[in-house]
Each structure stands twice: as structure tokens, then as C-alpha cells.
Design brief:
about 75% helix, two-stranded antiparallel ribbon, mainly alpha, single chain
């Protein structure tokens, strides 16, 4: 019972912090997600350092992830136009890390190259891309709107809730038992229905996209969020661990909370680009 209460309390505080930061505007959205980005990269690097014997300097990866988010934020929300100049320090950092590994005598160079790259592409980049979503639907003369970033999290939370409820009550057919024994196709279908319902509700509440566009986005988020969850489950099973960390009491690490987001955000941007919203 105590663990359940801790889990609920942590979830509420974390949810309020996320929604509050987006609601208050870019000046709260930016710092919070910059912190989340850097802490998530640190968590990923610590995992591979402990379980895969990597030897690259994780602080360079953390700095790179933070800079990547800050660069996207500056371009999207601060009117910075010289994109190449903004990303030049980040490119220099990546090149430096790779040169450093070439001349290093410690560890596997291939592993170090691969896991450093993953720390940036898999962990940092999706958070940085939230800045692109947060520019869509902004009022005239503004560069920020919370609608699309918030809708991603609403869809993920609805999917998790629907999948849990339908999976517990109707779940019979395992989706990928070897990777995630509790996931069922019935839970997936239930999560999809609940999330589509959320998409329809957002259409009537916001009236910013056509109803089929909201439904399409909901389906994309459900599919990629579920895949993102399975990918992180594969990683944890490979490392033989239960949680990616202990950053959030009762919930595990940040990667445990954002595993669905890491694929859902870039996929949503691709979808919105294809239908002409971005």
C-alpha cells in the first residue's frame, strides 16, 4: 500500500510539473525539458557504462544532449536564424568525442561510438524535437503553443491507461511475451480506442485540426509509443534490470517514464509534416 501511495504521489507531482511547465509558456517549458534531456542522457550513459562496459566520457554526452535541446529551443523560440552557426559547437563536440575514441586505448571503440551516438539520437534528439511541435499553432506574433506537445503526452497517458484497463480485464493474447509478458493485443486495442477518443475530444475542444487529422495523430502516437516501450523493455531485459534508474520514486527512472515519448515525438512530427501541418 505504501509503495502504491508513493507511486501515485510521484505520478501526480510529475504530471503537474510537466503540464504546468507547458501551460506557463516557453520560459518554463525550456528549462524543465532541458533538465529532463540532460538527466535522461546521464541515465542512459550510466546504464551502458555499468552494464556494457563503455568507456566514453558520459559528461560530453550530457553536455551534447543539453546543447542539442538548447539549439533547437533557440532556433524555434528565440528568433535565431543562423542554423549552421548554432549547431557548429555541437558538431565540433561530436567530432571531438569520436577523435578522442580513435586514439583511446580503453574499451571497445565500436561500442563507444555506438552508445555515444545512441545517447544523442535515441535519448536527446526526441526531447529537442519537442521544440518544433511547440511552435505549431502559436498565436500571431508568438513562437510557442503548448497544444501539440501536451497532446502527445495526453495520448501517451490515455494509451497507457486504456491498455492497462483492457489488458487486465480482457487480455488473453500476448503481444510480445518474450520482451514484455504483460502486454496483450486486447490491451493495445483498448489503448488505441481510448486514445482515439482523446483525439476526438481535442478536436472539439481546440478546433485546430480536422477530426481525421487528430485521429491519425492518435493512431501514430499509440503505435510508436507502444514500440518505444517495447524497445526499452528489450534494453532492460538485455541488461537484466527492472528499472532504468531511481529518479522517480515508485516509477523507476526517467527513461521508464519517457520510453514511449522517444519514438512518438519524431513520428508525430513526420506525420504532421506529411499532412501539411508543419
Amino acid at each position: 500500500m505504501k509503495n502504491f501511495l508513493i507511486r501515485v504521489a510521484t505520478g501526480l507531482v510529475f504530471g503537474v510539473a510537466l503540464i504546468g511547465s507547458m501551460w506557463l509558456g516557453k520560459n518554463s517549458f525550456g528549462p524543465l525539458f532541458l533538465l529532463i534531456t540532460m538527466c535522461s542522457v546521464k541515465e542512459f550513459c550510466t546504464l551502458v557504462e555499468n552494464h556494457k562496459n563503455t568507456t566514453f566520457n558520459k559528461w560530453w554526452a550530457i553536455l551534447g544532449g543539453g546543447y542539442l535541446f538548447a539549439a533547437f529551443f533557440a532556433i524555434c523560440h528565440c528568433g535565431v536564424e543562423h542554423t549552421l552557426a548554432v549547431f557548429a559547437p555541437y558538431i565540433a563536440l561530436v567530432v571531438y568525442v569520436f577523435i578522442q575514441q580513435v586514439f583511446s586505448t580503453e574499451g571497445s571503440k565500436l561500442d563507444n561510438f555506438a552508445y555515444f551516438t545512441l545517447s544523442q539520437v535515441y535519448t536527446a534528439l526526441p526531447f529537442a524535437l519537442l521544440n518544433i511541435l511547440s511552435t505549431c499553432g502559436a498565436a500571431e506574433g508568438e513562437t510557442y503553443s503548448m497544444l501539440l506537445p501536451l497532446s502527445i503526452f495526453i495520448f501517451i497517458w490515455c494509451n497507457d491507461t486504456g491498455a492497462f484497463l483492457f489488458g487486465c480485464t480482457l487480455g488473453r493474447h500476448k503481444m510480445c511475451e518474450r520482451v514484455s509478458p504483460k502486454k496483450t493485443w486486447e490491451g493495445f486495442a483498448g489503448g488505441t480506442l481510448v486514445t482515439i477518443g482523446a483525439g476526438v475530444a481535442l478536436y472539439y475542444i481546440t478546433d485546430t485540426m480536422a477530426i481525421w487529422e487528430w485521429i491519425g495523430m492518435a493512431v501514430v502516437v499509440v503505435a510508436t509509443a507502444t514500440l518505444g516501450d517495447l524497445i526499452e523493455s528489450c534494453m532492460k531485459r538485455e541488461m537484466q534490470i527492472k528499472d532504468s534508474g531511481n529518479f522517480l520514486p515508485g516509477h523507476g527512472g526517467l527513461l521508464d517514464r519517457f520510453d514511449s515519448t522517444l519514438l512518438a515525438v519524431p513520428s508525430a512530427i513526420l506525420y504532421l509534416s506529411l499532412i501539411g501541418i508543419i
